[in-house]
Design brief:
Shape: elongated
Helix content: 55-70%
Order of helices and strands: HHHHHHHHH
Number of strands: 0
Number of domains: 2
Structural class: mainly alpha
Largest sheet: none
Length: about 270
């Protein structure tokens, strides 16, 4: 690593996004919008800066993890901090963000590019990227199309149970129903029938939950195979532009790469890279 590279990395890592004296700082906004802890939000910001280091020092496109991409999305809304301070003053060139064009070729490209980003991270920083922010290629794209923006004041968000999680409730329901029926059968035949009906209803509900869980699992699996829809393919990619003049007509949410050669794609419904 040359002295110039080391100096550039140091500047990027010391760069502060937004006003730290604000009541709602960048880090707190990030944590709030993603339901992250303050510590995890800070870690994601650090990894975002390392992602910027990769773009600035390698000279070719990179694809971030979804977590890093969320930091990137938010940073671009702080337009002065992003375009003027980071891109203009520190990097000396713009880094644009845009969506995938879709299709199998794009999906393969961004899968490969994400792996190349993980490899470049290890080469530059001398350690593997932390898995809680940079998951494997398979995990990175497995549920990319399932992320939705939800108003939690109007909707509950309840985790879907897995088949393994439902095994114990099913067994307990069967055991309790059998025990109750056996105890009441001699004294009150009518009660036995009622309990049997209740047990049947509970069983139907549990089975329905299992079916829903399995269906969700199959749907998730299909998103990581070739059956995934073209509009959900890809990931996010960034590359430095070769000319700073390209920023004057390019917005942060641009839909495609520009003539300078910086490209992007997003498989999780984001605005691109």
């Amino acid at each position: 690593m040359t002295n110039n590279t080391h100096t550039l990395i140091d500047k990027i890592m010391r760069f502060e996004i937004g006003d730290d004296s604000a009541q709602l700082t960048f880090a707190k906004r990030l944590a709030r919008e993603n339901a992250w802890s303050d510590d995890y939000a800070q870690k994601a910001i650090t990894e975002y800066k390392r992602f910027v280091c990769l773009i600035a020092t390698t000279g070719y496109s990179h694809t971030p993890s979804d977590q890093v991409d969320q930091v990137w999305h938010l940073h671009m809304t702080y337009t002065q901090s992003y375009w003027q301070e980071l891109c203009g003053e520190i990097l000396g060139k713009p880094i644009h963000h845009g969506p995938t064009k879709g299709g199998l070729k794009e999906r393969i490209k961004y899968h490969d590019q994400y792996q190349r980003t993980l490899d470049a991270y290890h080469a530059l920083f001398g350690q593997a990227a932390p898995e809680d922010v940079w998951p494997s290629v398979e995990q990175r794209f497995a549920n990319a199309a399932e992320f939705k923006r939800i108003d939690t004041s109007q909707h509950w968000v309840i985790p879907k149970p897995s088949l393994k999680q439902l095994t114990l409730p099913i067994a307990l329901t069967a055991a309790l129903t059998t025990a109750a029926c056996s105890e009441q059968s001699a004294e009150n035949p009518g009660m036995m029938g009622a309990l049997a009906l209740l047990g049947a209803i509970v069983a139907v509900v549990v089975v329905a939950a299992v079916v829903v869980s399995l269906s969700a699992s199959k749907k998730t699996a299909s998103t990581s195979t070739s059956s995934k829809k073209a509009s959900n393919d890809g990931a996010v990619v960034a590359a430095p532009a070769t000319s700073s003049s390209s920023t004057k007509s390019k917005s942060p949410d641009a839909d495609s790469s520009d003539a300078s050669g910086c490209g992007s794609g997003c498989g999780s419904g984001c605005g691109g890279a």
